[in-house]
Amino acid sequence: MKICDFCTAAKIILDFVAVGKSISQLDFMYDLFKDFIESDEGLDFDFDNGLVCRWLNGTAKISSRLTSYYSANGNIEAMAIDIEQNILPLLYDKFMAAEELYHLLMNDTTVSANLKSELTENYSYNNDIDLSNFISRVLLFTMSRTFIKHDVKTKELLSTGTLSPIVKDYIYDIVPKPCRHFCGRESDLENIHELLKENDKIFLTGVAGIGKSELAKMYAEKYKKEYTNILYLRYGGNLKQMIADCDFADDTETETDSRFERHSRFLKSLKEDTLIIIDNFDIVPTPESGFDDITQYRCKILFTTRCRFSEYTEFEALEMPKITLIRLAEKFYDKTEQKLEIVTQIIDEVHRHTLSVELAARLLACGILKPKKLLAELKKSKSILQSEDKINIVKDGRNRKATYYEHIHRLMYIAGLDGECGEILKCMTFIPDDGINPRLFARWLNLKNLNSLNRLIEYGTIKRNELHKIVLHPLIKEITLDDKKPSISNCQIFITGIHNLCLMHGADLPYHTTMFKVIENIILLAEKDDTDKYKIFIKDAFAYMEKYAYQSGMKLIIAELETIAHNNDDRALLFDYKSAYEHICNQNISAALEYELQAVNLCDENTNPHLIANIYANTGGLYHASGDVFKAKEFMEKAYYILTENNLQYTADSIAQICNYANLAANLSEPEKAITALKKCVEYTEENSGIYAELLWNTGIIYLQMNDKANAVPHLKKALNIYAEIYEDEPELTQRKIYELQDAVSSYGINAQNSISEN
């Protein structure tokens, strides 16, 4: 029997999508939940590709935020409207799709007869409105019901046959479609295909903005039936991180090196029937970069790059024929044919550079300048190099063709990208290559509306990608960095928006990975013209990265602090960070303890009590991990007294430290001390929060150790009820707590299951 749950119902709908109207899983979610995405409640919400895949294969419950929104009065009608307008037109037989949903529901013996009757009231639908209402009701029911995780076990991935395993069940990846205005390059596609037949690794070279990425995407689209698998990866500056960031079905949130190793082992198992596209590989690789390892993969790999790799097989994407570029201009500027002579001259003036032609056509379409005036402006930016000049790699690792660079720069100047538009472009340089939700970006930059952002999209300087995110073209990013020179002070509003999130150390954010990548880019790209603000920013960022064991970011901040640590507090913090890295990332407790003790020696509790308390607590935790419980108690107790004497119990990290101290005190036969410490923390904690639940849980367990069931039961019961609400999307986490409780109280006969269900 199939269960009528969200993943099964959604699969039925997706199975009825017409061949010519194929839609990605992410686009399906955006279309289905459009009303929520555009609402105030959905302001900071973003669909993560891996999570969406888990929703659709039944390994994760759909977000409670979506369920709550559509359960509110009137919002189910909004879903029905979105289904009618966005989903039904995609289906080749919408009535049959509804019929299958009907049978799925009626055949599910776990659904009551009354509920079935309610959901199928007057079922016999012959119009789109009734059809959409029925589908929306069924979908909301599947979202709201108790989640039962599908038994999708990771299968053995290594193949022993001649073909690669089909990876779509294991790797959550989207091969982006080429842009809708792609045209030409038919012979290039054929040539690339012939080269890949004979060679495992191909480097698709060409100047920035010539169209390499779109050519690679079109190749994947045209020849997808000739490969068992096609994977698309964006290079972001670190090959190892790129592979670790691949979204696999069995990934967990806080894995470290094991994630890279596991992913790499799988990729090595893929054979010649698999194609991997690595986009924007614009570096000269070093021996330690991991490049040599990747080139040993047995599968086909197509790199897009501005660099030269003469020792490998290259294919250079050159300027397209003039007639093709006229067709491209027509897609943006509807008067191209009327103004053909001038448009042709503009194309010649920009040396048939694809991105320049597109931007020029967009500017003409927006009415910024008349064609003759635009041509005159372009003539002012004289070429430094001739169009046939080859790409040169300069010592800073960036390569550009000055001719194209200057023309793009001129077109951006003509567009008048100052004021708010200039601020947006400046801060967009920090956005990772996979993009960001536009409303989240607007929130960080404190934009009142999206008007300026939409203007930049209209001009073509900012693009929307296949995930509905906004990105900068690499060449436009390069020009903006040179022209606007983003810094800590002139991007203060944007950086403050991120910094405020970093201060919420205990909060789980669905977009933390994007945030970390942005922070890394700020560190790498922004001018450090305000050292004090910058230092505070990276310190708070580290604490957040530590929570998620985000290795590359932790390592980068440690390197930064090495250069700006000028006093004992800074140096103590540096040793504390090095200790955290050794402990979390390398599992080297002895090295971590050595660093932490160096930090202890540098601190003065009279000048910075919060810092020394934190370092004492961390030192105690390391002693505990090493098995020295008495040394652990000594340092944890010192931390506790410093925190309480200075009224510092209210912070998320302080509460965690006090919980650790209380548990240790209880285990060392000092439960009264433990209870006192925990009760003090409760006063500073938001009720029904995760931290509040942890305090109640720890208190209840200690009462059990004291054989005080009368106090233990209400604390544990309330904690479990809070966990059940917090982990609604992941009920297995609550179940884990129940098992833990059952083990702890078995000798007392307390029923844990009842404790979570009672009021």
As a percent range, the share of helical residues equals 55-70%
The number of helices is: 37
What Rg do the Cα atoms give?
29 Å
Strand order of the largest sheet: 2-3-4-1-5
State the secondary-structure class. mainly alpha
Distance between the termini: 34 Å
Strand content: under 5%
Overall mean pLDDT stands at 82
Could you list the spans in which at least 5 consecutive residues all have pLDDT below 50? Answer: 152-161, 383-400, 755-759
What does this structure look like?
This protein has 759 residues and is mainly alpha-helical. Among the domains are: 6-144, no CATH class; 186-316, Rossmann fold; 322-409; 416-484, Orthogonal Bundle (Arc Repressor Mutant, subunit A). It is built from 37 helices and seven strands. The strands form two sheets. Strands 2-3-4-1-5 form a five-stranded parallel sheet, with helices on one face. The chain has a two-stranded antiparallel sheet with strand order 6-7. A hairpin with a 5-residue loop joins strand 6 and strand 7 (470-472). It is globular. The relative contact order is 0.05. Residues 152-161, 383-400 and 755-759 have low confidence and may be disordered.
Topology (elements, then pairings):
Layout: H1 6-15, H2 25-32, H3 34-37, H4 49-57, H5 64-71, H6 75-87, H7 94-106, H8 113-119, H9 128-144, H10 186-198, E1 201-205, H11 212-222, E2 229-234, H12 239-244, H13 257-269, E3 274-279, H14 291-294, E4 300-305, E5 313-316, H15 322-330, H16 340-349, H17 354-366, H18 371-380, H19 402-414, H20 419-428, H21 438-444, H22 451-459, E6 462-464, E7 470-472, H23 474-484, H24 492-502, H25 512-525, H26 531-547, H27 551-564, H28 568-584, H29 589-602, H30 609-626, H31 629-645, H32 652-667, H33 671-682, H34 690-705, H35 709-726, H36 731-745, H37 752-757
